[in-house]
Amino acid sequence: MRIESELRNNNSSDSNNTAAGLKSVQLCGRLTVRERLFLALSALFVMLFATCSSPLYAFNYWDDANVFFTMGRGILRGMVPYRDLYEQKGPVLYFAHALCALISSKSFIGVWLMEVALATVFAFFSWKIVKLYYVPSKLTIAIVPAYLALVYTIRMINYGDCAEELCFPLLTIVVFLVLRAANGTKPGSDRLPCSRDALIIGIITGLLFWIKYTFLGAIIGVCIYMILWTIRPKAWKKLLKLVAVFLAGVAAVSIPVLLYFAANHALRDLFEAYFYNNIVYYEKYDYYKLYGTHIYDMPVIGHFSSVIFDLLGSCMVFPKYAITMILIAVGGFTVRSKSRDNIISLFFLSLVFCLAGIFTKPHIIYYYGYITMFLAPFALLLMVRIAGFLFKVFVNNKMTINTLYTALAAVLLFVAMVTCKNLYMLKYDKEDYPQYRFAEIINRTPDAKILTYDVMDSGYYLASGTMPSTPYFCYLNIENTWPVILNEQNRLIAEGAFDYIITYDSTEDDANVHDWPGYKVVDTYDFTFCDYTGKKLIEGVRLYEHVS
């Protein structure tokens, strides 16, 4: 067969394998015990340094991660998302962080274990996708740690634990299941996933929908890809059956979510916060004022333009992201068979619809594009292909190729890791963070009630061991367009409902200077950090205490 011939040409070291063995490994992408162990250890090593949730770091400074964790801690205390604690992401994200809080409610160790688990899943299925098309030599897997380091040290990860980071491994599972079905070699194969795989894809879709529904663009692209592949074999009957199984998977996630909120009389809160407010009140920009053009206000053309320019903007802000996207784009062309058509079609459709979902308008927050790393296995295909080429060059000298592989993998891993933006945070102890400095003051008051005013929750509730006493416990992106948050916070402040209030402290902005009756400033602190673009910033914060 043509595929078997290509495998022999690409992998001279495995020439003694039987054709049946090659075909079985290629079609299934099965992993050996040694491969699983190596991949898991690689993910563990990379995530020790890439995310500040790791025990190597004293604290995860990112506000998003802390907001998710506060929501999770609240769930364990009987508080219901959106009703008792208001935030904008999906409930499954909060349920996951509640599980993490079961491991430790005082640190990010549970979150880190979740990140390691998902990075391991990503490593497994990335390598499984490679093995759909190649039978790599045993040493080629040494490239994977560098590959993982490249993906997880892109500055888009910020300090770790963003929705994009947690979800792209799930989409990688979908890519593998679809490609495995499309890679079938039986005559008349309909190239559709089996019922079990359709159920898994449905469950993953349900998880994505209830984490951040804008991620569903990638799933839409995958579904269109599968429908297009059924036109030739005319497998419409099976397709309809798979749609039913797929919807059952979505329902398996959605029904428990809905029952939870129904049992807590919070269905209205769920739909208002997660759907209506996100769609209607999310801050809109004056695009002409920002960019000097009305093109973004035009229907269809404006959306298409925003997708293109946001992708280019992401590549300019994050060089590693640009490198990875180039490797991804080239990687699919390295497969020497008709399977290349499958890869390129899936890549194009899933990427376009994914970008259309996350870049609905020009965004300042370019890390939204991090979700596209579900396509990164195509970059690994290219890396393995290059390694295979080097193997061919030195095929007659096994010692040389082993040394070359090891050196190349080590250099790539070193370069990727030392360029990780979070490494500078290793120098900080807990006492260096304003959260723990303020916590020493806050904890002097038994059962203290605190509020982060016009500031996102960057861990002040976690560090002080407190929980919010109002649903509107921190700044959110809809404050300017949905005044309910600030109005309620101001009302409670006027009533003296909080023992302590944390705000920004900036001498350049008079809006950050508050004259609240009954409150006085008891501490200020400036903290130096790098934002998700790598820009060095000095963030000043102020602690008010209620004294009357």
Number of helices: 21
Low-pLDDT windows of residues: 1-27
Distance between the termini: 84 Å
Instruction: Please indicate the count of domains.
Output: 2
Largest beta-sheet details: 4 strands, mixed
Order of helices and strands: HHHHHHHHHHHHHHHHHHHEHHEEE
Strand tally: 4
Biggest sheet strand line-up: 1-2-4-3
Mean pLDDT: 87
Radius of gyration: 25 Å
What's the assembly state of these chains?
A: single chain
Specify the structural class.
Answer: mainly alpha
Helix content: 55-70%
Proportion of residues in extended strands: 5-15%
**Silhouette:** globular
Describe it.
With 548 residues, this protein is mainly α. It has two domains: 2-423, no CATH class; 430-546, no CATH class. The chain contains 21 helices and four strands. The protein has helices at 2-10, 19-28, 33-50, 63-76, 91-103, 109-133, 144-152, 163-182, 195-209, 216-229, 236-263, 267-280, 287-291, 301-317, 319-331, 339-358, 377-393, 398-418, 434-442, 460-464, 484-494, and strands spanning 450-452, 500-504, 519-530, 536-546. It has a four-stranded mixed beta sheet with strand order 1-2-4-3, covered by helices on one side. Strand 3 and strand 4 form a beta hairpin. Helix 3 crosses helix 6, helix 3 runs parallel beside helix 7 (144-152) and helix 9 (195-209) packs parallel to helix 11. The protein starts with a helix and ends with a strand. Residues 1-27 have low confidence and may be disordered.
